[in-house]
Amino acid sequence: MTYRPNLLVVDDELGPRESLRMILRDDYDVITAANGEQAVQCLEKQEFDLIILDIRMPGLNGIDLLGIVKEKAPTTEAIMITAYASIETATNALRLGALDYLIKPFEYESVREVVRKGISRRDESRSIKNKISELQLANKSLENDIEKVYRNIQKHYKETVDSLVAAVDAKDSYTRGHQERVARLVWTIGKSLKMDEKSLSQLYRAANLHDIGKIGVAEHVLRKHGALNKEEYNMVKKHSVIGAEILSPVEFLLDTVPLVMHHHEKYDGSGYPNGLSGNSIPLGARIIALADAVDAMLWERPYGVVKSIFEVKEELTRVSGVHLDPEIVEIVLKENILDVYEEMIEN
Prior knowledge:
By secondary structure, the chain is of the alpha/beta class. The chain has helices at residues 14-24, 36-45, 62-72, 87-96, 108-138, 142-171, 178-192, 197-208, 219-222, 230-237, 239-247, 257-261, 283-298, 309-319, 326-334, 337-346, and strands at residues 6-10, 29-33, 50-54, 77-82, 100-103. It has a five-stranded parallel β-sheet, with helices on both faces.
């Protein structure tokens, strides 16, 4: 008989709860609970492969329930339900081991895909657990196999952070694709600077996550057309610190934290959050700052006008040594990196 994974869906609203049950019932054994207390009772009776739980519920909320789930059954995968994403829920869910988000209203294929990913990860976790037990008993080739297990754990952390990046993209249409383009550009710049592979990989990861903190910025501010007022600008300025806070609990991504934190520092010390200047700004953050500015000028956004490559080069020359590292600007212009970049993004 084919094994059917069992799922627990927890939501105080009947509509979303039943919607998920209907979407998933053909392939999974689905049990539902109307609140956190009912869910705890279900967890005491049996173990689930995956639990889908609403963040905002009366009584025992989703974050507190997630903590109980991970305490009682650490290998049970968890997916959060939310109508919107926030820095508090993102950080807490990541720290407690949530896999992903489902944002209301649900999309049929999105639900099925994220559940498939959760069940796959659950199966892989079981396999890893069994493998570790075998390694402890056999004590053969222990070092190499544990390294493989560790890489799998790193992969899982990355999947979780990728889900947060997707949540940011859902809030801000401009951000969608921006982080990936910046990552590709900083890789090219890093190669021109003769950076080693480890430093290049670190730089690429940080660039691909540099705007993750926008998950904590109000959507109406991110999508506003026209200039931001002082209060709105101060809200946006917090995203670099928020991003660092999100990434700090993830050991695999610790080396990206200072680059994300300081990618809006300026060479003359007038940037944020700490007003660092010159070489006191991490090199990777200085590279991301340049790539971030280039991509912002070349792509349409709510509060800016698209510039030509010629205009971008003029602007880089103007702010060299003021906002941006003059040595990096010189290399970018001298080696025609922007022309290569323009051709790359067009293809």
